[in-house]
Amino acid sequence: MRKDMHHDRLQKYVIVDYSREMFIVAVKKHENKEEIVGLGQYILEANFQNAEAAFITRDDCQGQGIGRELLSYLTLLAKKQGLLGFTATVLAENRPMLHLFETMGFDLTKHIEDGVYELKMGFKPGP
User: Fold this and answer.
1) What is the pTM of this model?
2) 101: nearest Cα among 115, 90, 112
């Protein structure tokens, strides 16, 4: 196990280029401290018009709207950046995630292969 990391190698973990990627966390106050309960991110694709979106919610906090809030805020940030939409990869058995993407108001196309959906979600004009 390493006990140190060279400065140059560490930089890719601590420096975020927000013009190419975005990371946000959802926190919940518990007693006098905040706990991370979710993480959302998008990473710009090679065409510079779309980004791959992903998020995760802690198991014991699922079904509380955290994923919807993360995706809504990522969408707002991506639109401000001038992006046209998201892509995502979702396992077919992950019905809650698919349902969320289907109900967010995107222009959605889905393709399934080997139990995995490839989603393309275009942003509709507006705020």
Assistant:
1) 0.82
2) 90
